[in-house]
Amino acid sequence: MGGLRLHLPLHCFFGARKAEGKPILPFRIQASTSTSTIVSNPDLVQDAKVSTRMRNLACPICFDALFSKTGATISLASTSGSSIECNTCNKVYCGNDAFLDLTLSGGTMDYDETMPLATELFRSPLVSFLYERGWRQNFVWGGFPGVEREFKMAKDFLEPTTGGDIIDASCGSGLFSRLFAKSGMYSLVIALDYSENMLRQCYEFTNQENIPKENLLLIRADISRLPFVSGSIDAVHAGAALHCWPSPSAAVAEISRILRPGGVFVATTFILDTFSVAVPVLSILRQPYIRATSNNLFLSEDELEDLCKACGLTGFSCIRNGPFVMISATKQT
């Protein structure tokens, strides 16, 4: 969600190394009753009533499935006052009026954890308030094409996953989460961020725009410890976030874990190879910069492709415009 202020003209977009063909998602049968679930250990749910909306959620500690004794549908419409449990860890996770907290420290009374600088920056009320009120718009100076064009580009990459469940990771104030929800493209849209204040902004915008809440869920979670059952998610989108993650490799590995075979990961970030003469200097300064700011610097498309391959994602392709890059990769089938 960070950015660079680079004054560059917005050139026409061109594709690089487009993946041939589109991945085929496996056929799925979804239960029509309100007592069905998918769990990693069936022995744990002998007497539990579980909503079908719980099928994706997992304990961030042990990754066993979470369930609700009340059988309530887990969506933004019923998040307030909800509680879900892990039978393995005996931990209860609670929802407030806006989001469900599925962080490792969620529900702790005394313990608090300070995250890297970039993460803490976006937890502040001021930055959360300003994000859609000027902050994100400045990304055009770094080659970002504008929200409408960026959303269309993402939808083109994500088209094979239509009708499934999508996570908008590091969603910020929910700029793209709300667009996905309004598009009707997915059966469930999960807006996920670590920042409580960003999620509250998302909730407020959702109310202002009268977006239906039945197929939308707001979750607070750590990008490196995603609270979802392995192989349960059809698509993950991460807009202008990859460079802000404390460990991109840990985050992309988690995304790969939760994606179904054939699932698609789409992300946007910055690549600084536009100024080729500066790349050698940036290579030297990169590590001190990362340590000081907690922001990551990417110097080539090859770095991002290598990152995806290392985490089990294939079919890498990207679109460039100056420093801006949108990447797409697919979970192996």
Automatic annotation (TrEMBL):
Which Gene Ontology terms cover its molecular function? Answer: S-adenosylmethionine-dependent methyltransferase activity
Localization annotation: Plastid, Chloroplast, Plastoglobule
Note the Pfam families from the entry.
Methyltransf_11
Q: Which UniProt keywords apply?
A: Chloroplast, Membrane, Methyltransferase, Plastid, Transferase, Transit peptide, Transmembrane, Transmembrane helix
Chief site of localization: plastid
Occurrences of domain Methyltransferase type (ranges): 168-266
Q: Where is it found, in Gene Ontology cellular component terms?
A: plastoglobule
Which CDD domains does its entry note? AdoMet_MTases
Q: Which InterPro entries match?
A: Methyltransf_11, SAM-dependent_MTases_sf
Tagged with keyword Lyase: no
Question: Which parts form a coiled-coil structure per UniProt?
Answer: none
Please list every transmembrane segment annotated in the UniProt record, as residue ranges.
264-285
Which biological processes are named by the entry's GO terms?
A: methylation
What name goes with this protein? Answer: Methyltransferase type 11 domain-containing protein
